[in-house]
Design goal:
The chain is of the alpha/beta class. It has one domain: 3-Layer(aba) Sandwich (Rossmann fold), CATH 3.40.50.450. The chain contains eight helices and seven strands; from the N terminus they run βαβαβαβαβαβααβα. A seven-stranded parallel beta sheet has the order 4-3-2-1-5-6-7, with helices on both faces. Helix 1 packs parallel to helix 2. The longest helix has 16 residues.
């Protein structure tokens, strides 16, 4: 693993724990010698994450749609800034640049990005691991929902198991780096 993409909110959330987690994850990524790929924002958890990785001496690649660049919400001091035209192109380029994906707390955009990457594993488009950094129970409801989807047979247990979850950034990165995804060819065309 050479790079990791982190999806996270453009808001900082209701408590300092979210910013603390973003800083801790950024430091852990840099300490492992990984490049950070993220949305390139200067606001919210994105800004906290990018700033912390740069402060730790990391290589930080931002990927942003031109529309956000024109609104001046993009971090100006990144190692690299890649500008694309659409959000779809943003996700595709982030997927190309990263060897794995982590979601910090965030809103609809964060969930969209994470679930698209998981779906791409399921469809055999890529074989890159996906993870959640659990912060103060933020994702407890989501993980309970995924378990419910398995119980109701809308999600296969092996698809649910693809999502790595941990509270510790160092442990999460180690699990991400050692993840072995099962062969997805048997899943194509199956239910769930």
């Amino acid at each position: 693993m050479h790079s990791v993409c982190v999806f996270c909110g453009s808001n900082t959330g209701a408590g300092e724990a979210y910013s603390d987690a973003a800083r801790a994850l950024a430091r852990a990524i840099v300490e492992r010698g990984l490049k950070l790929v993220y949305g390139g924002g200067s606001i919210g958890l994105m800004g906290v994450l990018g700033e912390a990785a740069l402060a730790a001496g990391g290589h930080v690649i931002g990927v942003t749609p031109r529309r956000l660049l024109e609104r001046e919400v993009v971090h100006k001091g990144l190692t690299e800034l890649r500008v694309v035209e659409t959000m779809h192109q943003r996700k595709a380029l982030m997927a190309e640049l990263a060897d794995g994906f982590i979601a910090l707390p965030g809103g609809l955009g964060t969930l969209d990005e994470l679930f698209e990457m998981l779906t791409w594993i399921q469809l055999g488009i890529h074989r890159k691991p996906c993870a959640l950094l659990e912060v103060d129970g933020y994702y407890a409801g989501l993980t309970a929902f995924l378990d419910h989807a398995v119980e109701q047979r809308f999600l296969k247990a092996e698809h649910r198991a693809m999502l790595i979850i941990d509270r510790d950034p160092d442990v999460l990165l180690a699990r991400l780096a050692s993840a072995r995804l099962p062969n997805v060819s048997k899943w194509i065309g199956g239910s769930g």
